[in-house]
Amino acid sequence: MNTTLRSALCCLLVLALGACAEETGPETTVVNAKVDGVPFTSQAVTNVHATSSLRFTAVQAATSDTIIIDMPKIQGTGSLVIGGKGGVVAEYRAPGKYFTSIDTINTVQGSVDVSQFDDKGAVGTFTFQIYQNKDFNGDIAVVNEGSFSIKF
């Protein structure tokens, strides 16, 4: 009986400690993706965030390529539309090239899936097709397998 009582108390203590553990945010800040099949790994990421918005700029030092995603209306976790009327803007910049999802026609060009957004940080994935000019007459860049982990 004594052993059973001790075992039960130990189990309760372990459960209580687990329930009291503070939720943590991302350990680091990094953005990864593939741009036209070529790996992109950020060496520098800056962000501006507020209660319901996030804008991050990720730079790959070796090439100066940049990915920018601006999410002005985040309502917790979930999927956000890039381009069109979704409110989310994505940009990809490479030396001599500027691609943007801001368009004159309201088409869906990709999405951001936010799995964490709180006072500790933001985590999610993204994919988008982006055009060099607003009229869709320029080059197209495909950004896929994107992920972000941003510590606030």
What does this protein structure show overall?
The chain has about 150 residues and is mostly beta strands. It has one domain. It has 1 helix and 11 strands, in the order H-E-E-E-E-E-E-E-E-E-E-E. Strand 1 and strand 2 form a beta hairpin. It is globular and about 45 Å long. About 10% of the residues have low confidence.
Which bin fits the share of residues in helices? 10-25%
- The H-and-E topology, N to C, reads as HEEEEEEEEEEE
The mean pLDDT is 81
| Strand ordering within the main sheet | 2-1-11-10-9-6
Largest sheet: 6 strands, antiparallel
SSE blueprint and pairings:
Blueprint: H1 2-20, E1 30-35, E2 38-41, E3 44-50, E4 53-60, E5 65-71, E6 78-82, E7 89-94, E8 97-100, E9 110-117, E10 121-131, E11 140-151
Antiparallel strand pairs: 1-2, 1-11, 3-4, 4-5, 5-7, 6-9, 7-8, 9-10, 10-11
Kindly summarize this structure in a few lines.
The protein has 152 residues and is mainly beta.
Question: How would you describe this structure in keywords?
Answer:
152 residues; mainly beta; 6-stranded antiparallel beta sheet; 5-stranded antiparallel beta sheet; globular
